[in-house]
Structures are given as structure tokens and as C-alpha cells.
Write a structure and sequence with these properties.
Blueprint (H helix, E strand, L loop, with lengths): L1 E4 L3 H8 L10 E4 L12 E4 L8 H18 L3 E6 L1 H13 L2 E5 L10 H5 L6 E4 L11 E2 L5
Parallel strand pairs: 1-2, 1-4, 2-3, 4-5, 5-6, 6-7
């Protein structure tokens, strides 16, 4: 399994899912090397940070995430966003790897931009707010974070 997110709150939310990963071979990936201590004992990788305004860094990030997926060949990608998770879900789709997108709990009024972009790409697309759920996704399965 590849558990990937950007930094800050996305990373914190991904770590809250860690008990669900018990018994799985997990590689954690994020944008800051300093986060490795928070997953001591687990495989850890960094990817370049990116956002929609910095096109060159987004290309570098996308390329590195694509290579990471080719190298690891995980059975599933789990992400809480943002850009690194979005890239991972897109490439996972192309490579036949299942993916789970859990939209940020901070997005209580509308889906995150990245969350909107994974529509039709993620195998399981979740929101943590019941009023944001739709028949074609995202789906609400309870507040998991």
C-alpha cells in the first residue's frame, strides 16, 4: 500500500488512518523529510511539493510520483490529498492500481479542488460530510478522521 499526501493537515489526517493499515505493508510518502519520524519503522519516501500555481514543481512532483508507483507497484493507493494524492490517484488509474481518496475534513462546505479532480479516477471516493455526498460520489461512510 502507498499512503500519500501533501503536508500539514493532509498528512495529519493520513496518520489518523494508520490503525486501519495494521497488518499491511505500507509505504508512506509526503513532501517533508521531517515527517519520517512520525512513521518510525515504516517505509517512507518524499516527493516534491507542488500546487496549481507552480507548474514546473507540479511536473517534477507528478514525475516522481509516477516513478514511485512504478517502483513500488502497490495494490492500493490511499490519500487524503492534495496535489501529490491527486497525481497518485491519476497514475494509479493508468497503472491498474486501486485507489482511495478521502477528502479533507476541513472542506465542510464544498469538496476540495483536488477532490473534485479525482472524480471518476478514484476507486473509492469519500467525503467526511454527509451533505457533500452524492449518488455518483463522493460517498459518505461516516466521519473516519
Amino acid at each position: 500500500m502507498l499512503a500519500i499526501s501533501s503536508g500539514g493537515g493532509h498528512w495529519v489526517q493520513l496518520l489518523r488512518l494508520r490503525p486501519a493499515f495494521e497488518g499491511c505493508d505500507v509505504t508512506f510518502a509526503t513532501v517533508q523529510q521531517g515527517y519520517q519520524s512520525q512513521v518510525a519503522g515504516a517505509a517512507f519516501r518524499t516527493v516534491p511539493d507542488s500546487n496549481r500555481w507552480a507548474k514546473l514543481s507540479a511536473l517534477r512532483s507528478a514525475f516522481r510520483i509516477f516513478l514511485l508507483l512504478l517502483e513500488l507497484r502497490p495494490d492500493v493507493v490511499v490519500t487524503t490529498g492534495a496535489a501529490p494524492g491527486c497525481f497518485a490517484v491519476y497514475f494509479a488509474k493508468w497503472l491498474g492500481i486501486r485507489s482511495i481518496w478521502i477528502d479533507s475534513i476541513a472542506n465542510a462546505e464544498e469538496l476540495s479542488l483536488s477532490g473534485q479532480m479525482v472524480k471518476g479516477k478514484a476507486d473509492l471516493w469519500l467525503t467526511q460530510w454527509p451533505h457533500l455526498a452524492q449518488d455518483d460520489g463522493p460517498h459518505y461512510r461516516g466521519s473516519v478522521l
